[in-house]
């Protein structure tokens, strides 16, 4: 089989390599840490992401190169394209690593985003707040994740502090109108190198402290909303001419409108549920797409809720999984634990996740509630 290089060595790369190994591929990750989650599964080159010599080494050893995060240095990506095969190209990275470029691409594909403004100075921020109203969310255009690099501005008094804080990052800033969503959804679409497209069932996502906590599938929304969410994701992946996965994060409002929040050109945390619940996992699908295989069937085989296991949840979850679980039996659930092999269980750090397969999503949520790591407001 061919050798696939992955830029990045975190859990997404690890799960990509696990899925792809079963398909006969070999994997080498380029990662600054020597013992990261994916180095434990395939080979690895320990180097910074913008280390050109290391990237050249990777290109020499690999037939195909992909990435597990979007902040890959554009110059490195361009160099890799000359020396190896990078089916996703560099345009997709260029677009999705910058919120303004991404929003323009989403709009060009025919989907809505929250009204927004480009911010270059505190004065521009004041004017944009006048126009878009409060609350509004100020974000760095690049580099943010898990809500880092954001400030929800609720009153005009916060403007100077918000601007000063985010301007520190030294990137452009974006102000977005605050969308009073009733639910957050995400849809993962895949496009093969010959233009074939498939979409996974939309997930309903619940965040706690800006970190994904639960993904509930099927999402508890009207079938028309599900269909529209899938249609938008397909338009976006086609509009971008992407290869591989594109995750589309959406806000659903009370009156049924869908707004695109952001994109990710890679496997997504909210797609981990596919590992046991779909006929093809998001990781297998990504490997299929970048390796030129036909895309797999994305059908859902069982209702499922994915719960993230953060550092502070690790002990209780491991104990729960190690004991005979009569509650799981009573509820008819099958909780499947995935751990990423990270050594230090720091609070807030993503250590693993549990996919709780169940006869229905209420039973899965009941099991999760019973573990004591339930944090979201129980909205049911
Ligand atoms: P991720 O870890 O998903 O990459 P991120 O740091 O890139 O996160 P966003 O996805 O832009 O950040 O925002 C994080 C969360 O903040 C969203 O999931 C949503 O709950 C909330 N949020 C962001 N933008 C808005 C908005 N314009 N209106 C309302 N809520 C928002
Ligand atoms: Mg993001
Ligand atoms: Mg997000």
UniProtKB/TrEMBL annotation:
Domain ATP-grasp: residue ranges: 103-291
Entry keyword set: ATP-binding, Ligase, Nucleotide-binding, Purine biosynthesis
Pathway: Purine metabolism; IMP biosynthesis via de novo pathway; 5-amino-1-(5-phospho-D-ribosyl)imidazole-4-carboxylate from 5-amino-1-(5-phospho-D-ribosyl)imidazole (N5-CAIR route): step 1/2
GO molecular function: 5-(carboxyamino)imidazole ribonucleotide synthase activity; ATP binding; metal ion binding; phosphoribosylaminoimidazole carboxylase activity
Catalyzed reactions: 5-amino-1-(5-phospho-beta-D-ribosyl)imidazole + hydrogencarbonate + ATP = 5-carboxyamino-1-(5-phospho-D-ribosyl)imidazole + ADP + phosphate + 2 H(+)
EC class: ligase
Annotated binding of ATP, by residue: 99, 139, 144-150, 176-179, 184, 207, 261-262
EC numbers: 6.3.4.18
GO cellular component, one term: cytosol
Gene3D superfamilies assigned: 3.40.50.20, ATP-grasp fold, A domain, ATP-grasp fold, B domain
Keyword presence, Manganese: no
Gene Ontology biological process terms from the UniProt entry: 'de novo' IMP biosynthetic process
Function: Catalyzes the ATP-dependent conversion of 5-aminoimidazole ribonucleotide (AIR) and HCO(3)(-) to N5-carboxyaminoimidazole ribonucleotide (N5-CAIR).
Family named by the database record: Belongs to the PurK/PurT family.
Complexes and interactors: Homodimer.
Full protein name: N5-carboxyaminoimidazole ribonucleotide synthase
